[in-house]
Write a structure and sequence with these properties.
Strand order of the largest sheet of chain B: 1-2
Order of helices and strands of chain B: HHEEHHHHHHHHHHHHH
Shape of chain B: globular
Order of helices and strands of chain A: HHHHHHHHHHHHH
CATH class of the largest domain in chain A: Mainly Alpha
CATH superfamily of chain B: MetI-like
Number of helices of chain A: 13
Radius of gyration of chain B: 25 Å
CATH superfamily of the largest domain in chain A: MetI-like
Number of domains of chain A: 2
Number of domains of chain B: 1
Distance between the termini of chain A: 24 Å
CATH class of chain B: Mainly Alpha
Low-confidence stretches of chain A: none
Structural class of chain A: mainly alpha
Oligomer: heterodimer
Shape of chain A: globular
Low-confidence stretches of chain B: 1-22
Structural class of chain B: mainly alpha
CATH topology of chain B: MetI-like fold
Mean pLDDT of chain B: 84
Largest sheet of chain A: none
CATH architecture of chain B: Orthogonal Bundle
Mean pLDDT of chain A: 87
CATH topology of the largest domain in chain A: MetI-like fold
């Protein structure tokens, strides 16, 4: 089909580019120049000299430690979520009976439970379990609140698997376990990796659970680490920006590695 | 066409009946671990927070029942009324700003043109930053002494302390939230717009429908399910916006931007009045589930239909 160029939309898109790009430019330009220069000319000026000192200071501090903590938390959260949500998705899609719709509906409603609203009992629960200020204190609730959307995505993906494949495997005498591992997991790879990526990103963004459920530097995640810079280095914006940029690098890595499953997942999220 | 679709559906139902006796179907136990885990960390706490809202508890000792004291305090607390208003102002502001921009950008970037793909890569860069990192970045940029207001005083007016004024702080919160989340919703709409069958547009072209007509009569209806998903996410996300408030304005100036979750956090974890904080949490929970249920009911999300039905 021949398409006429849409100049109006193009102009609007360029405006949006400026809105997105200007703060990013200011952050990048500030992070690579010395503090004095920033104070003199403000965040929008072109940097006249380049320095990586701000990044060096940030990397010599606690930030790498926080990033490691976050990586551990995110990886464990993904494992817990996959181990729990894949069987749920399979049971919902292939299960017979009222319970399978019931389970699906429960997770659907679970989407509406804001983690903020239950933080106080979760705090109590984590204390009772003796997990306060451990990685598990962040991993377990984060995983629980990632379950609804994960189940939703997995059910969407698994419903697309051809029914006849299930039937022929069952005809060959395969039980649910074999069907799950030999049919469902290989064919739902796409949605499974989507769930993994989204869970990892969610864990990476987590703020409230770590804020309430951990306190020491040895368990501190990067979102709290970046927040610390507000109080600590209020007068050194170049360093703050450098810390923000460093905190984004692991997410950048996830995006580059998993771009495909991310986009595929988003395509499914809206329902087809 | 309709008759064809209905016989097709009939065929599908009868084949489902035939296979229901086949073996190899998973039993309910497969769903059990996930279900129990979710119940323990999300559903049981919901009941617990309701119980705690009737207690006096400092977070350390044992919660003691104190009747409806927290609730009678809550309904007479002007700060709660204010927090509710602020929460809804932010919520509505966020939807009104984000939804139209995300739909237009998403549809635009779904086009096959090369330059669109290149530009939209940059659109998605904010997705790399966590909410906390975004808020920290903006707080520095909006700093009246060191940030953009010091460089461009004409844009921010007054002494440049835009984020320090009551209305300015609200505008900043909506703007920063939109800056961070529009890319995500754009991505949703881009993916969904790409899935619209080209044949629909070709048919419209033959019928002589213009660009706006095509957008209104094909694109928007085809995006229906995504619009529902996206606005549900915006509502729940907006009601529970916490980190951005804490980092960007810390509820200020004064308590002007203290949203319900922010109030709850302060009562619970700064004043250690967990009972009262639980009452606020119940309000938050009721609002969030209430609005979501309403959305599900109104939009029929739970029995979401394929937009390709009948094609």
């Amino acid at each position: 089909m021949k398409r006429r160029p849409n100049y109006l939309a193009g102009a609007a898109a360029v405006c949006w580019l400026l809105i997105i790009g200007t703060p990013l430019y200011a952050m990048l330009a500030t992070a690579v120049r010395p503090k004095e220069q920033y104070v003199d000319s403000g965040p929008l000026a072109l940097p006249t000299s380049l320095t990586f000192d701000n990044f060096r200071t940030v990397l010599a501090g606690d930030v790498p430690r926080y990033i490691l903590n976050t990586t551990i938390v995110a990886a464990a959260t993904v494992i817990v979520v996959l181990a729990l949500s894949v069987p749920v998705g399979y049971a919902v899609v292939r299960g017979r009976g009222l319970w399978s719709t019931g389970v699906f509906r429960l997770f659907l409603l679970g989407l509406a439970i804001p983690s903020q609203a239950v933080i106080i009992p979760v705090f109590l629960l984590i204390n009772q379990l003796g997990l306060y200020d451990t990685y598990w204190a962040v991993i377990l609730p984060t995983a629980a609140f990632s379950l609804p959307v994960s189940v939703l995505v997995l059910v969407g993906g698994m419903r697309d698997i051809n029914k006849e494949l299930f039937e022929s495997m069952a005809m060959d005498g395969a039980g649910p376990g074999r069907i799950l591992f030999q049919l469902v997991i290989p064919l739902a790879r796409g949605s499974i990796s989507t769930v993994a990526v989204f869970t990892a990103l969610g864990a990476w963004n987590g703020f409230l659970f770590p804020l309430i459920l951990t306190q020491s530097a040895s368990t501190k995640v990067i979102t709290l680490g970046v927040y610390d810079f507000i109080g600590q280095y209020q007068v050194n914006p170049p360093e703050v920006f450098a810390a923000v940029l460093v905190s984004a690098l692991p997410i950048l890595a996830i995006y580059l590695l998993a771009r495909k499953s991310l986009l595929r997942g988003l395509a499914g999220a809206g329902g087809k | 066409m309709a008759a064809l679709a209905s016989t097709d559906r009939l065929a599908r139902t009868s084949s489902a009946h035939r296979t229901s006796s086949a073996t190899g179907r998973p039993g309910a136990t497969w769903a059990l671990p996930g279900l129990l885990f979710f119940l323990l960390f999300a559903v049981v706490p919901m009941a617990a927070v309701a119980y705690l809202s009737f207690t006096d508890w400092d977070g350390l000792g044992t919660p003691r029942l104190n009747g409806g004291a927290n609730w009678s305090r809550l309904v007479h607390d002007p700060a709660i009324v204010h927090a509710t208003v602020v929460t809804f102002v932010l919520l509505i502001g966020n939807i009104v700003v984000q939804a139209p921009i995300a739909i237009l950008l998403g549809v635009w970037s779904a086009g096959p043109e090369r330059n669109r793909a290149a530009l939209s890569t940059i659109f998605f860069v904010p997705l790399l930053l966590s909410t906390a990192a975004t808020a920290v970045m903006w707080r520095q940029l909006l700093d009246p002494n060191f940030g953009v207001p010091a460089t461009l005083p004409w844009l921010f007016g007054g002494d440049g302390n835009f984020v320090g004024t009551s209305n300015g702080a609200i505008v900043c919160l909506v703007a920063v939230t939109s800056w961070q989340f529009i890319p995500f919703h754009t991505l949703l709409f881009q993916a969904s717009a790409r899935a619209i069958p080209v044949t629909l547009y070709q048919a419209a072209e033959i019928d002589g429908a213009g660009r706006f007509r095509q957008f209104r009569s094909i694109t928007l209806p085809q995006l229906r399910n995504t619009i529902i998903t996206s606005s549900t996410l915006m509502v729940v996300g907006g009601l529970t916006a916490f980190d951005i408030v804490l980092v960007l304005t810390n509820g200020g100036p004064g308590t002007d931007t203290a949203t319900l979750p922010f109030r709850m956090y302060q009562e619970g974890f700064s004043s250690y009045d967990m009972g009262y904080a639980s009452a606020i949490a119940v309000v938050l929970l009721a609002l969030s589930t209430g609005i979501s249920l309403l959305l599900v009911r109104v939009t029929g999300y739970d029995k979401m239909q394929s937009t390709l039905e009948g094609l």
